[in-house]
Design brief:
mainly alpha; elongated; single chain
Length: about 350
């Protein structure tokens, strides 16, 4: 078979595949391999035809042979990826990340769209496997490639950094330190690239960053910094104060900073339960028990009207219990500290009833 005949046979194989005549395609390819056993296209076509004939092992062997012959050519790697994606075989699924890694390397210099698509697929696999560090590294590499390109726009990089935060935010508490640092860096980069400030997009970004930091106890300094940052841009938004307030409340912090936080929060939201709880606990710590009961009741019952509040404070335990059930209040911290304040005021029945609510949770 001459070189001309090889080309003709390959053309016939291609046409047979196009017409879904896969067995015929195999015949043409085998004829080529008798003369040129290392013909790249023939092995690729065998992979395609065997895959369509539901002969996955033969398809895999053919694609791998082609990839060995010309490792920098796309077709064989693309064929392996398609084969593995469609298969339920565990050994195929296990090899898929390696195939994606090779495709990403090849696409980096040839097709940015495909590079993005395959990177996303690889990240999804790592996310499913809970391999968050590898997911972060893949996405970081994708961004580095884009950054090195001439003429890349800031908004394009911003979207990539933003996508990285979306991919990793939901699992931040399960990540190791290196992965968490990748995530924090992504938020910082996204904030630097955000030009439209203030805006809804910027607000959502900084809100997500605060949410992330709130789940990392060792990032308290940064959390406070970002909460103040958000307040400077969005002074009427209570979210950063609520996050800080929750931190102070859960850590039993009644410092001056905590009191300032609760006070500012009440200026924005006069019936904010968290702020009233915080100030009530502070009053309890200062042995101002009447004030403690008042503030905690404000938080627990969500009452804005002062007359109604005075009435509730004077109720017996059963009345409070019934009212709370109707309003569906459910704060362990509120009930616990209310029980302490009532105990100090020698309201033992009330204190016992409030304490009993803690046991419900």
């Amino acid at each position: 078979m001459s070189s001309k005949e090889v080309k003709s046979a390959l053309k016939s194989a291609r046409e047979a595949i196009k017409n879904k005549e896969f067995k015929e395609a195999l015949k043409h390819c085998k004829a080529v391999l008798k003369l040129e056993k290392n013909n790249y296209n023939a092995w690729v076509f065998i992979g395609v035809a065997a895959g369509e004939l539901e002969q996955p092992d033969q398809a895999q062997t053919a694609y791998k042979k082609a990839a060995e012959l010309e490792p920098d050519q796309l077709l064989a790697w693309q064929g392996l990826a398609n084969l593995y994606e469609k298969s339920d075989q565990e050994d195929f699924k296990a090899e898929l990340p390696k195939i994606y890694q090779k495709l990403i390397t090849l696409y980096e210099t040839s097709d940015k769209v495909k590079c993005f698509e395959v990177s996303k697929k690889l990240v999804d696999i790592y996310q499913t496997e809970k391999n968050y560090l590898q997911a972060a590294r893949v996405w970081r590499r994708l961004i580095q490639v884009r950054e090195a390109e001439e003429g890349v726009e800031n908004f394009e990089l911003l979207e990539l950094w933003r996508e990285m935060t979306r991919l990793l935010l939901g699992t931040v508490e399960k990540q190791d330190n290196e992965t968490q640092q990748h995530l924090l860096s992504a938020f910082e980069q996204a904030l630097q690239l955000t030009e439209n400030v203030p805006s809804e997009d910027h607000k959502q970004l900084i809100e997500d960053y605060i949410k992330c930091l709130s789940k990392l106890p060792h990032e308290l300094v940064k959390l406070k910094e970002m909460c103040e940052n958000m307040l400077s841009h969005y002074p009427k938004d209570s979210y950063p104060l609520e996050v800080l307030g929750q931190h102070y409340l859960l850590s039993d912090d009644c410092s001056e900073d905590a009191v300032k936080c609760y006070t500012r929060l009440l200026e924005l939201d006069p019936v904010n339960s968290l702020a009233h709880f915080g100030l009530g606990i502070k009053a309890l710590q200062d042995k101002k028990y009447e004030d403690a009961v008042k503030s905690i009741c404000l938080g627990q019952y969500g009452i804005k009207d002062e007359k109604i509040l005075k009435s509730i404070v004077s109720w017996n335990a059963t009345q409070k219990f019934t009212y709370c059930l109707k309003r569906m209040c459910s704060s362990i911290i509120g009930w616990y500290n209310l029980a302490l304040a009532e105990l100090k005021l020698h309201k033992y029945a009330d204190s016992a009833m409030s304490a009993s609510r803690v046991c419900v949770f």
